[in-house]
Fold:
Amino acid sequence: MSLWLALTLGAVALWAFVNIIDATLRQHFLDSNGGLTWVAALMKIPAVIVIFSIFGLEWPEGVAGYYMLLAGVLYIIPIIFYYQAMSMEETSRVALFIETIPLWSLLHASILLNERLTGTQGLAFILIISGSVLAAFKPSRKKWHFSVAFLWILLATFLWALEDVIFKKFEPGFEEFWSAFGLFYLGALLYVFAPLVSKKVRGAVKTIPKKMTKGWGALIVTNEILTLAAAVMFKFALTLNKASLTLVVAAIQPLFVFIFGVLLSRVFHLIRKEPISAKILTLKATSLVLIVIGFAFM
Structure:
């Protein structure tokens, strides 16, 4: 249990840094969701090579291999929607939206893993969605408005929760965890062919060499290392406990994102500053409290 908890919390902390870096890349490096997703896919190549070199390519009997590739595809595609949301809202608000993952996880796990839902989990569903929706409302000078970024993240989290559950269901069919993870990353790597079918992505990719500097290159590599470490820790944690429970513990990510964002923006001027007015802080705190209470019922 302690290993599972340490892995889950470690993954959440690393993903908080990743969220902040992603927002910075989207705002200052490349104004293209598809282009940045292509970069994320391209950066999977070294990891895939290392994993297959050490553990080999295992293709288990049945359909487990195909579903692991599918999980990888379902992991990379939603990054397009995620970057769109990042371009529209501050990072900590997007992190609050991402907390809808457990809702989809409950749905997918009940169908694919036969994890039965209880009455208290129904109450948890209501509380979590209420907190997430509350975070989608933003105060302005004259009136409140609903953030469309929430809808983009809702689509992304539906697919991310599905790939998490697919990974948990089919990973036991592999002899090694790393063999399953290697195929998972190989599925994500397939997005590198997106420029062949999308003129928009192809155009964005062509601009990357002109924008690339040593600083941006180092940040992108660092981001991929953190993403890989977080993904490995989280996927391994999924094999040690229930998928729904693992996702529940990950609920504190918005708090990490907010704290890291406030601190890092004081040192690095390119990092987007988090708004800290009393009204916004109260709204986000209330949203987070509703989400955390909801998780307690799960």
Summary: Residues 2-296 form one domain. The chain has one domain: 2-296.
